Amino acid sequence: MTEHTPGLPATLAWRTDGDVGVLELARPEKHNALDNETVLGLERFFTSVPDGVRAVVLAAQGRNFCAGLDLTTMDHSGVFEGVLHSRMWHRVMSTIIDAPVPVFSVLKGAVIGGGLELASATHVRVAERSTFYALPEGQHGLFVGGGASVRVPRLIGAARMTDMMLTGRRYDAVEGERVGLSQYVVDDGTGLDRALELAHRAAANSPVTNYAILQVLPRTAEVAPHDAYLIESLVAGIASGSDEAKGRMRSFLDKEKAGRP
After folding, report:
1. CA 161 to chain CA mean position, Å
2. Burial status of residue 147 (CB atoms within 10 A of its CB: 0-12, 13-18, 19 or more)
């Protein structure tokens, strides 16, 4: 059942499934193209994830995940306004990347332009077979502005993104999973169920461990190895020293002693 969440625009729908929340893009008549109201609504939501929610699934109504930026809503008044608009998107996508809980996305149909920028900000991506990826900005005299030039090359490499932008190349769901645009490919109509299954599995983890996975792994991948090893050691000590970790380990060892699976 869809629930009313104060502060969210009508273009976003929200409901819960136990301790997992489902946030849907709700502009199917516009192929879920992102206008400013929707983007800022995403920021409000991920800045203050509702209490009790331990994982979020980002899905979409209709046949397409997101056809990108709604160009009809852009402010074309000048270069500086374009810079500010891009920086707004950077700020909003960062609230998803840095969300305190794991974010799983369900991809289908068009995942193009700003839609790929949004998908690449989520932590785990489940693609239905109808999914196709594209970055058409190069053919429209534009350049990506929502963070794709940073995040997408880290998923698929700069050479593949260059090809997508220069030639308009598209990847289908299977190709996309192979190069790193998603972690899973599932049959059409089953993406939400699979994402919910994965999200519930992640929600059962220790919040300390999930926080470390989300916040530390991206950073240890970016810094020099000797710095990364120190960060890893510090976080490993914090995680293993938590009361929840000690309780989970005691439970595991008790089961081992009793010979239970």
Report:
1. 19
2. buried
Q: What's 184's domain CATH number?
A: 3.90.226.10
* Amino acid 1: pLDDT: 44
Task: State whether 93 and 190 are in the same domain.
Answer: yes
User: What does R_g of the chain's alpha carbons equal in angstroms?
Assistant: 19
- Whether the CA torsion 105, 109, 113, 114 is positive or negative: it is negative
pLDDT tens for 60-81 read: 999 999 999 998 776 666 889 8
- Which residues are catalytic, by number? 117, 137
Residue 182 near residue 173 (C-beta atoms within 8 A):
yes
Q: What is the rounded average pLDDT for all residues in the chain?
A: 91
- What is the Cα–Cα distance from 247 to 28, expressed in whole angstroms? 46
Is pLDDT of 126 > 90?
yes
| 3-state DSSP helix/strand/coil % of the chain, to nearest 5 | 50, 15, 30
Which range marks the domain in which residue 221 is found?
207-258
